[in-house]
Amino acid sequence: MRKVQGRRMGKHPDIIALGEPLYELSSTEEGDLGSAKSFQVGFGGDSSNFAVAAARSGGCVGYLTRLGADSFGDALIDLWEREGIDHSHVVRDKDAKTGIYFISRGNGEHSFTYYRADSAASRMQPGFFPDAYIAEAKLLHISGISQAISDSARATTIRAMEVARESGTLISYDTNLRLNLWPLEQARETIHHAASLCDIFLPSHDDVTRLTGLEDPKAIIDFYLELGVRTIVLKIGGEGALLAHEGGIEHVPGFPAEQVDASGAGDCFCGAFVAKLISGHSMRDSVRYACAAAAISVTGLGAVPSFPRQEAVKAKFPEVEGV
Where would you tag: which of 2, 13, 60, 92 has the fewest CB atoms within 10 A of its CB? Predict the structure, then answer.
């Protein structure tokens, strides 16, 4: 019988992520997908990526989603089991499929082809998770993609955030704006509402320039502070991040890296940051560690295989040794 706990020593997860996981098939040679002869298996979905990154950074993590009752869903369960991620409340749907996507490469670029319409995760409903699972956690993580995949998934994320707010569970939110999933106006309205509900806002600079029409980071930060966000960590790629917290704004520099593939780097950053923050480290130290983890993640192909464990981060960048 397959184990269903995936939980460290029976402890309730400190960090809960909710969203859509995806099974990845990446072409091993350059060219169109139709001419590909072999594929490398992998995993994606920003919320699942976040969960893996957080677990590898020492976090005690749980995951909420719906999966198809198929072999792709089995593979994702196996991934979370290996990573020590609690999946005891993941629902298997015999009438829907697990989302998958393909990666093709050519001329130094990546192309993504998704088969996720009407996926099991897109069928999430507000009542599918037990409220106590979120209420007893320290932090809930939500992303814009989780809100974009369907109306019912969007309602599910809002319900989860309401449960978290009512119970004192912190909420972190990553914009992860994908305009192929929904129109800008709808994305803007939904994401800005979610930002007003969260405690820690984790956008990328590219996302919020499109959402606000602003370019200047200080103006962007002021915009979201006025929405009621308490803490903002504005990701600015290889330059690191801007931390707006307790009335001040500080630039936390990034780490040098030879970029091979930036897929999932933002998810890695968010997971690493949250894991360190929840374990008791300061905001600045947590951002610093996240910058280091994300720098390592871009040096290899694929998201999950490149996400470092905390021992590798500290070995590569000894200046984060104390985190």
Answer: 2
